[in-house]
Design brief:
With about 140 residues, the protein is of the alpha+beta class. It has 3 helices and 6 strands. Strand 4 and strand 5 form a beta hairpin.
């Protein structure tokens, strides 16, 4: 019975420590700079709006997500362009604003980076999805 009680106490201690580390790392970042997440959101919005849409773009859907420490913006547009034209357009447009092409995934998703931001373009014939998020947050759109 005493062995089970010791195990129970040790397990509880490890559980508390395990949950405390992420919490304290979040609080440490937030305490040092209380406006960090609002600043991120504003910076992201500015960067996203600096990228001009193709002239024929018609917005289908646009969302701004904010979950505690994660922030991202995503949108879908109809365009009178083929997939290859969309790819070329965004490579030129994003490079004008300091974005560096990183890679194209096997799904055709184009990734561009700028500092801690990642801009994603998913081109298809007559449709494009775009999104921006902080690299540490991971894609959630």
């Amino acid at each position: 019975m005493k062995i089970f009680r010791k195990f129970q106490i040790m397990f509880t201690i490890f559980l508390i420590i395990g949950f405390s580390i992420p919490l304290f790392s979040f609080l440490g970042e937030y305490i040092a700079n209380p406006s960090i997440y609002q600043d991120r959101k504003e910076n992201m919005k500015i960067e996203y709006e600096n990228v001009e849409l193709p002239k024929t773009a018609k917005e289908i859907d646009k969302k701004t997500y904010s979950k505690i420490t994660q922030i991202w913006i995503s949108a879908q547009y109809e365009v009178d362009m083929k997939k290859e034209q969309i790819e070329k357009y965004y490579q030129e447009e994003l490079s004008k604003h300091g974005w560096m092409y990183e890679k194209t995934t096997k799904d055709g998703e184009m990734n561009f980076k700028k500092n801690d931001l990642l801009f994603i373009v998913v081109p298809k014939d007559n449709k494009v999805s775009t999104g921006i998020y902080y690299r540490g947050d991971g894609p959630n759109f």
